[in-house]
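User: Before I run my own analysis I want an independent prediction to cross-check against. Here's the chain; please return only the structure tokens and, at the end, one sentence I can use as a sanity check.
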Amino acid sequence: MDRELVETRTFSSGVVPPLLAMPGVALALIVVLAVHAPSVRWNSGAGIPLLALVAGLLRTAVAGRWYAERH
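Assistant: Structure tokens:
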């Protein structure tokens, strides 16, 4: 497929608003984790994936801002 066609379909379908909401979602998750940090077993099997989830949300937020500025 043509790159321009793919970008037009992607950004005309309403993908940008959720991408722009990602910083708020990531921030809310960070606040919740900070408040409940003492009760989380960070060295358990769930602690590392939880941190990876936060990192992924932040990465998506950065990419969303970048895409929104381009279009």
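Sanity check: The mean pLDDT is 78.
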